[in-house]
Write a structure and sequence with these properties.
This protein is mainly alpha-helical and 115 residues long. Helix content is 82%, strand content 0%.
């Protein structure tokens, strides 16, 4: 059974790891990229945990954490772009992915009942 947000957040984590490797090896950027790696991979980890939540409240909590991590990831991507560590093409490509993930997670969080 396909789970769109689980698939997209995992694929995004893979992209994040690859971007981290690029930023550290090619651009020699270590601080911002580490923050990006942490938040970008945390999205999928929290989505995965939510799939086996113990309750609706637990599901809601994990998805909200995933949404917060997605928003943080978008921040780090914008900062890396504005400080010239990402080209416009690189940024636009990955930004479209994180925006889609934020949109899906926002919808899930609004439609899930934490009670």
């Amino acid at each position: 059974m396909n789970n769109t947000i689980e698939d997209k957040s995992f694929d995004f984590a893979v992209r994040t790891v690859n971007l981290y490797k690029h930023l550290t090896k090619i651009k020699k950027e270590y601080s911002l990229s580490k923050q990006l790696l942490r938040s970008g991979t945390s999205i999928g980890a929290n989505v995965s945990e939510a799939q086996r939540a113990q309750s609706k409240a637990d599901f809601h909590s994990k998805m909200n954490i995933a949404l917060k991590e997605a928003n943080e990831t978008h921040y780090w991507l914008r900062l890396l772009y504005k400080t010239d560590f990402l080209t416009q093409k690189e940024f636009q490509s990955i930004e479209s992915d994180i925006k889609e993930i934020v949109y899906i997670l926002t919808s899930i969080c609004k439609n899930s009942d934490s009670k």
